[in-house]
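dumping the sequnces here before i forget
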Amino acid sequence: MGLGRFVVTRTLNLVLVLFAVLFLTLAFAGPATDNVLKRGVDVYVKNDIASLCDKRNPPSFCRDANLIKQQMEEIKQREIQNLGLNDPWWSPKRLGYSIFSLATLNLGESYFLRSYGGSNVVRDIILEALPKTILLFTTSTILSLIIGIFIGIRAARKPGGILDRFISTIGVASGTLPVWWVGIIAIVFFSYTLRIFPARATPLIPPTDPAYIPALLYHMTLPLLTITLLGFGSWAYLVRNLVIGIMQEDYITVAMAKGVPERGILYGHVLRSAAPPVITVVVLSLSGSLGGGLITEAVFDWPGMGRLFYTAIGGLDIPIIIGLTYVYTAIYLASIFIIDLLYGFFDPRVKAG
Amino acid sequence: MAQRGVRSLWRDFAKQPEGILGLSILILLIIATSIALTSLPPETFREWSNPTYWVRYPKTAEPAWVNFFSSSKQPEHLILQQPAVNEDVLGEFRRVTHSYTLDYSYDDFPNDINFNYFLNYGATPPQIELKVARPDGEIFSLGRTTAPSPPAQLAVYRFNGTISSAERILRNTVLQQSSKPNCPVSALNDTRANVLIFQVSCDKFDEGSRLLRGRYTFESSFFLFGLDDRVQKTELIIGGKVFGFMGTDDLGRDIWTGVLWGTPVALFIGITVSIFGTGIGLIYGVASGYFGGKTDEVMMRFSDIIISFPLLFLLIIIAVSTRMTLGLLIVILVVFGWPGLSKVTRSIALQLKTLPYVEASQLIGASSRWVMIRHLVPQITPYVIASVALSVPGPILTEAGLSFLGLGDPTLPTWGKILNDAYTFGAGARQLWWWIMPPGVMLALTAIAFVLIGNALDKVLNPKMRKL
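..and the predicted 3d for all of it:
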């Protein structure tokens, strides 16, 4: 199969998964959304009638309880009709509309969460949080990648040496620790015991203040340190394994026999061969850390998408939950797609197999 | 490779120090599981999320062993349930006594004293009397009451009552007995019953500590008038500031009990998902590779779709809209957990199916199912054994994360749930380390154990890795 067909199947896969996730999201959240919306209509109608009957000259039906009930039912049905709630969530009309509006990021209004600017449009709220998530997790991934590659290569020079064994242990141990739990410990130790860093990573000053950005960077230090320190071990271990594996290849032996200096072999031959798998893991872990960072952000109270998700779950702000699921899924799928394409270009076997 | 016996496999495995370390941790976890399953009361598991079950326990108490590292001994929370029982027949009625003896040698007064009793009786309500004999020989009466009259139509009436140091009546009784001519009430600056009972008489106030250390005997007497009347159970609770091996949380739940119960739950989730996921992945991959062609194409596209599902978000959506249960969680994790392995097994099956003995088997007329089950699966199994161990931590950590978000099975004591409670009660800011550390350490240990075992198995079973 040619590269063209490969790209087509990958794209189809991407679109298919995206729609499947959207459908499942709506399938699970749809009934809940309907209930919430209907309850909202109830409250609205009650307030409406109450304000009507509180006036100096109340309409005639206010004198009879039965008439009030009848009037309320009428207004309620009209509102439900207006909102399209009389169709179930799976009716083609509503489903099509929901998926279309999700795909175009037309995510409606949140129930109660607001952006800093006071907007209750889901798109505004999410777009405000998105850059902060990217800032924290991209920075920490790049930092731990650089440290990891450097230490991994050092460790691979002497397999079985002290540094190698240390890195292997650290790599296994730190890769399995839940970052959010270490985050809690770090906050207890650095913020409450030593009082070096703030316990909450959200600056107290509003984002419009010019001092906001330095304050944000200062508040970012503790989460950044925690994520980086937990992350670099696995990178080092990965790079070490790749390098040791490549070092056993015949062409490396040939290069050594030719008298190429060790640095030249490591940085010229070995790293070049190790690049594709490392790129894969970089892209995957970038998108993966966005999702895994959900709980970490909540723990550190970092004002990104993860904390927004956490707050939305706590208050069952369904439009925000659906919107964030869509954005996260899109980022995740886009990165898988990019890796697939990169692999398709780099590795001819992928196209064939 | 499949021919190599279990014995030689074990010999190779034993040479891997990391594998042995992982195995040792796993054995500890299995010991924790068996302690939980055999010696913990099952109610502590069922009633974990029911605060009324935990009222007998102290709230936010530190572990008892902090006393070893501290100059002053904090009073330990004592729940005494095994009294010395005595029964006398005195003419018309019987007198049953339950007495509790304790050595009080702490450096602070108890927080409170509660005596609970559970009675069965007929028409005439029994009388209850509680006394305490102090180390200095004085005897305080802590009250005398009569159980309430039963509703007329009942043959046996069950009643449980409490005599508590928090009651005003008890406080006044004890205050009267503590104040003597040389000891006016005004001299006693703390007049709580739990303090007065454990305090030296006030003429000795100048001699140092006011706390009266030594042997206390709490004696309760029940005067029963019916032949079938029974004292079912009594318990004496001396409220303290430290408790048990890992202390308690804000609701009085014993952290050690919760952490122990978390072990079987976590292992069950991890191992079930791992075994089913690996099994499905193995068979799916083998079938895909063996049949090849269009079937292979369709099967691999399907696994691509499954593999690119953002699982955590799906779980969150499901948990938000329905009630998450352990079974549902395991099913979802299995349904989305198998495709990674199927890619590996497929590529091995692609190589194996061209081997002469497989083709020979096909030529004699063996069915595809026979060839796959008898020839391919046994050959591939060694490769996937390591991945059984390596895929245990994932589901455990996912469950912990979900529970930490408050979206797990709400009734189960899991490590993530305990951490969620700690987080919502602000245990971090209050530095309640005994609440935060144990569940996280257990999570980390479990994950590390399986990763170490998996890596060691990988090196043993996958010769290319052994050189590393």
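Residues 255-291 of chain B form the longest helix (37 residues).
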